[in-house]
Amino acid sequence: MQEERRIALCKWIDKHFDLMDAVEKEIWAHPETGYKEWRTHAYVKQQMEALGYRITEVGDIPGLMTEIDTGRPGPTVAVMAELDSIVNTSHPAHDPETGAVHACCHHAQCAALMGIAAALKEEGALDGMSGRIRLMFVPAEELLELEYREELRQKGIIGYYGGKVELMRCGFFDGVDISLMLHTGGGKGIFTLSPGQNGCICKRIAITGKTSHAATPYNAINALYAAETALAAVNALRETFHDEDHIRVHPIITGKRGTVNNIPDLITMESYIRGASVEAMEDANRRVNRAFAGAAAALGAQVHISDRPGYSPVYNDANLYDTVKEVMTSLVGAENVKESKEWGTGCTDMGNLSCVMPALHPHGSGMHGHGHGDDCYVEDKHSALTLAAQFQLCTCEALLCDNAVSARRIIAEKHTLYPDIKTYLKALDRQTADIDGVTYLEDGAKLYY
């Protein structure tokens, strides 16, 4: 019986390929970065309303959702797609004004979710399911343009840099019991499962010195040299990180103040501190802060460090993993379901959700090239759109069929770090800090670390 249901659901997805194809092309042609996805938001809203859905919008930021009630009591499963792009000016399809491009293939996620929405309007699509399916188009998964996001935070428009955790704050995940999202990946006709992924803390750093004529550097404090010393200190720390913590630190210089004939007195930087656990991230972050403070003190400079919560590590739910693997296998065969044993060192705000509810973040296929690279685009639309939509819809059916017995078991046996969203956000806020790294005393310098 379940096999027959899956065949029917897959046929309904097939029926709406032209819609998915049109959505993929439209969003690809108009990329927008996080919290700026207003054109994409409006387009998705228009398409969803054309399908007959009542839409709930976040408000001050992009993002929208609809909830489909089966008419029978049961849990709520959230299925998501991401609205935002990255910036890569070397990609041939980048927007010439903003540098934005969907070299992350989030546009394919949106197209697949639209196919799911269309299929769920078919007569009989909800037969046998109990509970609710919440379809969500979420903003700002890519953690970039941190200065812009801090401006939004200072204005009270957002509380967090990442889209899903911000929507948690806004109440968009209230009542959700299980969350699922499929990220487009490479290959054709395959799915990939992994044990989990890193989380991260976001950093903005400003090193200030004292300018003078470049011919008299002894009258100055060179902020660039302080930054170079800090980067060398951070690099010296790398061999002290435990391999199993998967620490990644990758600072970039984002700005400077100075001219070629004046000593630079301001260097600004951004970085993540990535790690496989909250404890490992926070420990590495303290060490990096100490390295920046020590380097600034060595040159007589000052460093201001702004730490903000990024993403928590992804803890894929074991029982949900098993359900998803069974659905994938039924669609493409066991030989095309890849189970990676490697911990993922990238980050996603699905990790924030996994701290409070059963969640899973597997990868699909259909992408050409390397994620975020200048060769990245959707190559195989059957994999990236049709198969992705079929998998997610069939997973909803697997979770919610037979009085949602599978979903109820997953919820009953969950092991999350925090009992609810409110408790989790309170803990997450402890990662927020604004630090002046050096206090100069008459007899020397005192470091913050």
Q: Mind explaining what this structure looks like?
A:
This protein has 449 residues and is an alpha+beta fold. The chain folds into two domains: 2-195 and 316-417, 3-Layer(aba) Sandwich (Aminopeptidase), CATH 3.40.630; 199-311 and 429-447, Alpha-Beta Plaits (2-Layer Sandwich), CATH 3.30.70. 37% of the residues lie in helices and 22% in strands. It has helices at 2-15, 17-29, 38-50, 106-119, 146-154, 163-169, 223-237, 278-299, 318-332, 350-354, 381-412, 421-428, and strands at 56-57, 64-69, 76-82, 86-87, 100-101, 132-138, 178-180, 191-193, 196-208, 248-249, 252-257, 266-275, 302-311, 314-315, 337-339, 344-347, 359-360, 367-368, 377-378, 433-436, 438-441, 444-447. The strands form six sheets. Strands 9, 10, 11, 12, 13, 14, 16 and 20 form an eight-stranded mixed β-sheet that branches. A six-stranded mixed β-sheet has the order 1-2-6-3-7-17, sandwiched between helices. Helix 1 packs across helix 4, helix 4 (106-119) packs across helix 11 and helix 7 runs antiparallel to helix 8. The chain starts with a helix and ends with a strand. The mean pLDDT is 96.
